[in-house]
User: What shape does this take?
Amino acid sequence: MTAALHEQERINHAKAIDYNNIAAIPEVWPIVAAKHGESVALHDPHTNPETKYTYRQLADAINQFAAGLQALGVAPEEKIALFSENRPRWMVADQGIMTVGAIDAVRGANSDKAELLYILGNSDSIGLIVQDITVLSKLAEDISGLGLRFVILLTDEAAEIDADLGGARLMNFTELMDLGAANALTPVALGRDRTATLMYTSGTSGMPKGVMLSQANLLSQIFGASSVVNVGPTKKVLSILPIWHCYERSFEYFTLSQ
Assistant: This one.
């Protein structure tokens, strides 16, 4: 039995996708889509409607979301706050932001209002992506003076709110995706030394502190995990930690890459 398990591990490792030559996490998705395009990448039966992406659909959705951001004028190295709990569209937004060379500042939607507002201002974000209209309603009355250019919902709820957003353009997910479909994505040069994301500390010793993580920091998790864990396209993974948490995020990048 032990010999058979070792042999299966050797076979699995031989089938692992090699990402040693890529410069950034967004480069993972076209590679894995080309190899396992019709396999299910993400599935959430609890959303309404149910959300499911194959690897090909995920890669296409990321590029479409990115094209929508470019159409809104997002430039490389600008910051965008992303406040949401686990859902497939979080990955689309996160990787869409990185695809255009922008930097996301992530936090859970259930965090305290004061904490979210602090992160929004401290990160110098020019845009905000939120889980749904409920989360936006929690923040809306306090963001008019932050100079946001846009606010995007990760739901298809009506993009309407009785609050002053300071001139920010409000769109739901489908509206942003439609904008992306109408505009070609302009490729952006990505590098391992470029800042990929701002992840804020828990704030137990004061207000949260933003930690800059580069593409190399994130890629190292894929390379490191690949050396000790073998997963394949037929395996299923149930995520229970918050997607914006450093450990969960690294683990999801790794499992999806395989």
Remarks:
- Residues 5-14 have pLDDT under 50 and may be disordered.
- The longest strand covers residues 125-130.
